[in-house]
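Weekly sync, protein design subgroup
Attendees: M.S., D.O., the rotation student, P.L. (late)

Item 1: inverse folding check
M.S. brought a backbone from last month's batch and wanted to see whether the design step gives back something sensible before we order anything. D.O. pointed out we never logged the input encoding, so this time it goes straight into the notes. Structure tokens as presented (259 positions):
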């Protein structure tokens, strides 16, 4: 992994997961199997890797654990298998973040790609009219923010290599799947061509909508810079990511937000 996330952590392939350095805390990974996510796939009967991705929620430097707890912040890491899910790329289940009990908001998420190539897909709602829909293409070192209340999924855009990323999350995170599953997925399905390129197919269970494919923004309005890892930026300013557990701190930013 060429990108330096700012603390001692290394993704592993066999078995999938993470190795932590002596200065780092982290849990045993949770594995998401293909059978567990079939309901959210375009073809629930497709073939693919038995373990689609591995998650470790709440990792970081040991010296920061108590501060994370105090600030309601959590750093999560995820690594995806290489390969594909039938005609689809490896991806997460579409979901919306639950309303957090301490903020009464559905919370945002700050992604940072470490290795591989990602597409962070997001839409304003999981109602019949999904609103604006974005596919943000990101490479190692890129940061992508999913705003509060938006439905989203993370997609591996290169079937030939694993995808690994980190993210700042609300410490009391939770996921809502019902509206996405009621529409049999998100508003656009990523499809892998035989040559490994991503194409997009509209989900007929939603109203007509446009898909905007773009590069990540530079979120200077949130004081995020592209020169340092988001973990190092936290070390530089412990309150920089307080908008994650407390989105109302940046409520004006979320109006008409462009990811």
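Designed sequence read out in the meeting:
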């Amino acid at each position: 992994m060429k990108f330096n996330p700012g603390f001692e952590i290394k993704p592993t392939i066999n078995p999938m997961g993470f190795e932590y350095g002596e200065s780092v805390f982290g849990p045993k990974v949770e594995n998401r199997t293909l059978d567990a996510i079939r309901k959210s796939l375009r073809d629930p009967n497709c073939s693919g890797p038995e373990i689609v991705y591995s998650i470790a929620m709440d990792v970081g430097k040991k010296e920061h654990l108590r501060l994370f707890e105090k600030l309601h912040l959590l750093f999560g890491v995820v690594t995806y298998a290489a390969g594909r899910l039938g005609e689809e790329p490896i991806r997460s289940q579409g979901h919306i973040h639950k309303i957090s009990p301490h903020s009464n908001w559905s919370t945002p998420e700050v992604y940072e790609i470490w290795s591989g190539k990602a597409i962070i897909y997001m839409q304003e709602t999981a109602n019949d009219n999904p609103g604006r829909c974005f596919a943000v293409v990101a490479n190692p070192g890129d940061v992508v923010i999913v705003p509060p209340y938006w439905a989203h999924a993370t997609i591996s855009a290169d079937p030939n290599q694993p995808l690994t990323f980190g993210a700042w999350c609300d410490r009391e995170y939770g996921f809502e799947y019902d509206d996405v599953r009621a529409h049999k997925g998100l508003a656009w399905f990523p499809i892998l061509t035989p040559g490994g390129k991503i194409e997009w197919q509209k989900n007929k269970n939603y109203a007509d909508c446009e898909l905007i494919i773009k590069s990540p923004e530079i979120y200077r309005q949130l004081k995020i810079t592209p020169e340092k890892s988001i973990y190092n930026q936290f070390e530089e300013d412990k309150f920089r990511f307080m908008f994650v557990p407390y989105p109302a701190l940046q409520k004006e930013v979320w109006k008409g937000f462009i990811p």
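Discussion: Helices lie at 34-37, 65-71, 178-182, 230-236. The first strand starts at residue 9 and ends at 12.
Action: P.L. to compare against the previous round before Friday.
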